[in-house]
């Protein structure tokens, strides 16, 4: 009997032969795994309403449109009453006037230089507001006082309305050409456009154009 004095080297050689003959299984091919995509974010509802661009523009516009409502009180023993609403507009000030208790026909309306209606005949309001020293005139004419607002058409029942834009005027206190601190005067007769002030007769209504708060 032949004795194997060193069995371990023989076993190792046998293992190498088996491996060389393809006895060991080949490793499985690696399948690429795509990274997981993040889940889409769910929009969160806002807790408060946010105005869109259109609403913001409207809000900005509302905030920039300065408006002053002036009560018109009777003077010279008249029965006139009314209001004048002054609103800043492009290039000037829009004036919207409503009167009642007025004499039928056309009656003049002007902005006067002083915001003082204390006199019974409103002469405390001074002359027409004319910061640029223009001659008197009517709205459809050429040059005129900044305070020349034309005539109110009064119906038989004593009510009348009038709207006009005073180009170049503003409602900024202390600014050149500002209507703030002046007075609006309604006269008893029509402004005929003549010099120096339209021959419109007595002052039957007066209101102070107060400072914008």
Automatic annotation (TrEMBL):
Keywords: Copper, Metal-binding, Oxidoreductase, Signal, Zinc. Coiled coil: none annotated. Gene3D superfamilies: Superoxide dismutase, copper/zinc binding domain. Residues 27-60, 117-143 are annotated as: Disordered. Residues 81-209 form the Superoxide dismutase copper/zinc binding domain. The keyword Oxidoreductase applies. It comes from the Bacteria. It holds the Pfam family Sod_Cu. GO terms for molecular function: copper ion binding; superoxide dismutase activity. Its cofactor is Cu cation; Zn(2+). It catalyses: 2 superoxide + 2 H(+) = H2O2 + O2. Its EC number is 1.15.1.1. Residues 44-55 have a biased composition (Low complexity). Residues 1-19 form the signal peptide. Residues 27-43 have a biased composition (Pro residues). The keyword Disulfide bond does not apply. Binds 1 copper ion per subunit. Destroys radicals which are normally produced within the cells and which are toxic to biological systems. Belongs to the Cu-Zn superoxide dismutase family. This is Superoxide dismutase [Cu-Zn]. The lineage of its organism: Bacteria, Pseudomonadati, Myxococcota, Polyangia, Polyangiales. The gene is sodA.
